[in-house]
Amino acid sequence: MTGCAVEAVTVGHADGRDLVDIALSEALALVLRDLGTCGAPVPDVRDKRWSNFPGQVTAMLHDTDGTAQGVFAMAAESLPQRIASVADQVQEWAVEALWRAGRPATWPECPEHPNSHPLTAAVPEDRAVWICPRTGHLVNDIGRLPAPDR
Predict the structure, then answer these.
(1) What's the half-sphere exposure (Cβ side, CA atoms, 13 Å) at 30?
(2) Residue 132 lies in a domain
């Protein structure tokens, strides 16, 4: 895995009364870390059960403009699978949020092909990673993206 501690994702209230289910929180924390590191908008995560599908844990990602999108994880999946699945969903949210903000809508940007395409979440050898979809080159573990060079 990433070798770093994962913070719980506190949602809803500043006093921490509502927490996203740990099966979703531990995956979401790594993806949110990458959003913040890369300078992309970071959603307000709110605990919200919007599905009754067995084993599915859910929350909502809210943007400052009032829009929201659901995010989910399957609690029985391995942590790397949950991280990659959540990364795909947060990536969709981030691209939309960036577009609405008038910014380039590519997140996370592929460092090998700037201004071209985003990275893709994958799970090779039981690791949740970002890869270049063009070359398949592993860029970094999800949750470990470096700040972009400016």
Answers:
(1) 32
(2) no
